[in-house]
Amino acid sequence: MATVYDVARLAGVSPATVSRVSSGRRVRPESEARVRSAMDELDYTPSRLAQSLRRPHAMVIALIIPDVENPHFTAIARGVEDESRGAGYSVVLCNSDDDPRREAAYVGIALGERMAGVIVAPAAAESDFSGLTGAGRAVVAVDRPALGPIDAALLDDFELGRAATAALLAAGRRRVACVSGPRAVYTAARRRAGWKSAMAAAGRPTAGLTVWGDYRVGGGRQAMAGLLASKDAPDAVVVANNLMALGALGALGALGDLGALAPPQRRPPNGRPPDQAQPDRVPPNQARPPALAVIGDLPFGMEPPADIITLPLPARELGRTAAGLLIRRIDGDSQPPQRVIVRQPT
What we know:
Blueprint (H helix, E strand, L loop, with lengths): L3 H8 L3 H8 L6 H14 L5 H7 L3 E8 L5 H16 L3 E6 L4 H13 L2 E6 L9 H5 L3 E5 L8 E4 L2 H14 L5 E5 L5 H16 L8 E3 L4 H13 L6 E4 L2 H11 L39 E4 L12 E4 L3 H16 L8 E3 L5
């Protein structure tokens, strides 16, 4: 049976280089090519048990996300796996349900199982990962920043909220509401801040136009139903994530009847339907201006109707970026923590 020394001798490299290639760590491309060629020629299989005994950690990464059923986080997980697998790491997926206690339990498991590092979308602003960093484990926040000197891969959530709102205002909408996520969640607060900035820039009021949701289908349905029932209903809505958009469309009708969000000035005071001669009524054969803007794609491959604006999110690239940051830390990168903003390619 071939040994690491046999492979090193045939490839013309040191045994340490063979070990690095076997464990998925980075070496010069030409060295890696020679090592893999020698492994194939000698039918060499590295001993995973021996590798694990020599390493201070297992070749495993924990990914802790709030909602595994949300396609946004599923795409992040795919990006993390793509990048990690290429570097020789396996990924364990953990669902926190935005519960800090559940998140803390997974952090404890990652420590107990000697995992190499953790990528986490923090369940709360005060989530504490000092136990991991204090034990020498690499930690990277994804989608949401974390407390302490921790790398983060994030979206430009403020700009997403601003752009979604500006698009509706440019289409002629005037009273644009915001269905936001939970108050304590970073992405929800930043997207709402972007909405508010765009409304202020257009000289439009914002009082009474925010509904704090839960980033889930039921919350979007409830929020939209409340807006439609309000005395001074909006003529357009920005929805802060994809799952709430499904609920909002459900509240508008089976196919998302955006006619329910007709501008208030089109409704006569007596509540009767406008007659055919009313000048600002949209003819049936004319495209209606957008009344709903969704931050993110509609999930499950749904095609949005023409009168819905969607802002796709580069979730898979976000996952790849987070995993790249983590692997560099595991490999000994000691530069100051950084926040990387991942933007949708134009």
